[in-house]
Amino acid sequence: MMNDVKLATIVFAFLDEFFLQESDGKVWESSKNCQKERWSICDGCEHFDEPEEGCKYCGCYLPHKIKDPFGDCPLDKWISNSEQWYDEHYDYLKQSIIEKNSELKEYLNGNN
């Protein structure tokens, strides 16, 4: 059974690896189709600021916001795309963590 210390270790290992990968140039983005769909929704919204390419409601710069797989619209017009991120990137990130932290292998593979 996993204890709180082991869980915290895994969480911090994921965060650490996620941001290390990002700082090395790995791009975590929603799919191009998702970005197009989000842009279309924002473009038709009453809060869209066309000259600034932003949202007057939340203040986001939309060319960046629509790419965030974990982001969502605060007006619930579109939601995060984290399931796709999980399908495409989770195993890669998990393997990177196991390579650096072999003691976490059994927990990350569900063998605890």
Descriptive labels:
single chain, 112 residues, mainly alpha, 53% helix, 4% strand, elongated
Task: Describe, in plain words, how this protein is organized in 3D.
This protein is mainly alpha-helical and 112 residues long. The chain has two domains: 1-29 and 90-112, no CATH class; 31-80, no CATH class. 53% of the residues lie in helices and 4% in strands. It contains five helices and two strands; from the N terminus they run ααββααα. It has helices at 4-23, 32-43, 62-65, 82-100, 105-108; strands spanning 48-49, 54-55. Strands 1-2 form a two-stranded antiparallel sheet. Strand 1 and strand 2 form a beta hairpin. It is elongated.
Largest sheet: 2 strands, antiparallel
Query: Could you spell the SSE succession in H and E letters?
Result: HHEEHHH
Count of distinct strands: 2
Q: What is the helix tally? A: 5
> Helix/strand/pairing class, anyone?
mainly alpha
Q: Which strand order does the major sheet show?
A: 1-2
Question: Uncertain segments of ≥5 residues (pLDDT<50)?
Answer: none
Radius of gyration: 18 Å
Distance between the termini: 6 Å
In total, the number of domains comes to 2
* General form: elongated
Mean pLDDT: 90
Q: What percent of residues adopt helix (DSSP H or I)?
A: 40-55%
Strand content: under 5%
